[in-house]
Inverse folding.
């Protein structure tokens, strides 16, 4: 899970722009800016998936929530596993989040040619602690967030300016 904070100077600019709006227009403008940023981050995530994996690209989800007690907003962009709207449950889509984790952080395959000492169903237990070569570890989501991070205050500021001009 990645999280970051906007620097205080950018935040002060945004707060000064908000003062001219009523609460409903403010909420709408901020959500509009956050949605634009999330779409941008989503496009970067899709661009970082350089292998042929259509289920991951289809299962990218965006969530924006307003926190209680006027504490701010929460934005999430990432791979959603399980049920997708309009597609129902599918074996490929249920594994989307798991596949994303394997591609993101990588995994160690069982070493080839090393005897496990066990037979049948428990063959893996004999290989615990023996790591093979690291597979994948692409950090495709992390890279996308690092590229999208500086754009967040710009998108929110732009949406607030549009709201102020429209009011």
């Amino acid at each position: 899970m990645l999280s970051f904070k906007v620097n205080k100077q950018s935040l002060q600019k945004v707060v000064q722009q908000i003062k001219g709006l009523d609460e409903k227009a403010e909420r709408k403008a901020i959500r509009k800016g956050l949605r634009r940023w999330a779409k941008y981050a989503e496009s970067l995530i899709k661009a970082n998936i350089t292998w042929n994996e259509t289920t991951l690209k289809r299962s990218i989800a965006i969530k924006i929530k307003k926190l209680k007690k006027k504490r701010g907003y929460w934005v999430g962009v990432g791979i959603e596993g399980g049920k997708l709207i309009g597609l129902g449950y599918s074996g490929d889509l249920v594994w989307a989040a798991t596949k994303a984790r394997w591609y993101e952080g990588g995994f160690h395959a069982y070493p080839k040619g090393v005897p496990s000492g066990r037979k049948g169903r428990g063959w893996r237990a004999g290989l615990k602690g023996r790591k093979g070569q690291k597979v994948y570890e692409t950090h495709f989501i992390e890279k996308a967030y690092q590229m999208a991070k500086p754009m967040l205050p710009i998108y929110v500021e732009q949406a607030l300016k549009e709201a102020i001009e429209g009011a």
Observations:
- The longest strand covers residues 60-66.
- The helical segments are 8-18, 23-48, 54-58, 91-94, 96-105, 140-148, 152-166.
- Residues 27 and 70 are 11 Å apart (CA to CA).
- The chain has a mean pLDDT of 82.
